[in-house]
Amino acid sequence: MTRSDLAAVEEVNAEFYAAFEAGDLDRMSAVWAGGPYADKVGCVHPGWPLIRGRDEVLRSWALIMANTPYIQFVLTDVHTQVFGDHALVTCSENIITMDDTAGEFASLAGGSIVATNLFLRVEGRWRLLHHHGSPVLDQAEGDEE
Amino acid sequence: MTRSDLAAVEEVNAEFYAAFEAGDLDRMSAVWAGGPYADKVGCVHPGWPLIRGRDEVLRSWALIMANTPYIQFVLTDVHTQVFGDHALVTCSENIITMDDTAGEFASLAGGSIVATNLFLRVEGRWRLLHHHGSPVLDQAEGDEE
Asked: Helix (H) and strand (E) counts for chain B?
């Protein structure tokens, strides 16, 4: 594992969120693995069951982006491990979004998602194979104490 | 990837849930990677942020198991991919649990968790490196339609 492997993975990880922020399905499509790996692609949106398969995953992103007029991510706690042609990135997605249901009174809302992102290197390019995002509840840790 | 690789990974995946059902911290400890990989271990319990490091993860399991008088899993949609010395398992955890706060009126409750489990082969034995579980909300998919 070289420093440049880590940097290359984290660059694609950042592009995943940038594509969502831009609402750009072409960029989002370029992030995800395809070809012989299309069937292996998987995605868990917060609160959703697993979606399997590249086409189904991209369809879900089209739907979500169409319903998200504004979203911005600040990534923290980014940790990356590279093992051969696979890499695991975990990060906290600190989200600012806008609810468009209120018209001119549209409000900004925040939230925190924890993400597990698994990447695959195909012909020298890192692609996203599996994304799992889930909401962090404020009181979750305290519940057990 | 051989059939026996898949079977060996799925056996350890099943043992992870069996250890939780049994409330057996020794068995749970044996499932997780350690030694040089202890710092790489990560776990997201449903609604929690990421817990990093073998000791911290096992401490969280001790706490959760101490507060779970009864839990039973039925795993469905188990999909396994093996790549070299790593393997990805996704599955649905269909849960029956018991709430002990009601004394003799203790009630059984159900729920569904989607899980992403990443395993690592160390000296021929598959160990859990990363677990991410999150609740599946009944209406989540419908929200976007």
From this structure: 4, 6
From the list A52, A60, A132, which residue is nearest B132 (CB)?
Answer: A132
More confident residue, A102 or B132: B132
Q: Do B83 and A81 touch (CB under 8 A)?
A: no
What's the complex ipTM?
Answer: 0.88
pLDDT 10s digits, B48-58:
999 999 999 99
Q: Which domains does chain B have, with CATH numbers?
A: 3-138 (3.10.450.50)
The verdict on A27 touching B (C-beta cutoff 8 Å) is no
Which residue in the block uniquely carries the two structure tokens 């001790």?
Answer: B62
Per-residue pLDDT tens for B83-126? Answer: 999 999 999 999 988 765 555 555 667 789 999 999 999 999 99
Q: B140 pLDDT band (50/70/90 cuts)?
A: very low
Partners of residue A86 in chain B, C-beta under 8 Å: 83-84, 86
Task: List phi, psi (to 5°) of B59.
Answer: -60, -40
* B78 touching chain A per CB within 8 A: no
Nearest residue to B120 (alpha-carbon basis) of B107, B131, B133: B131
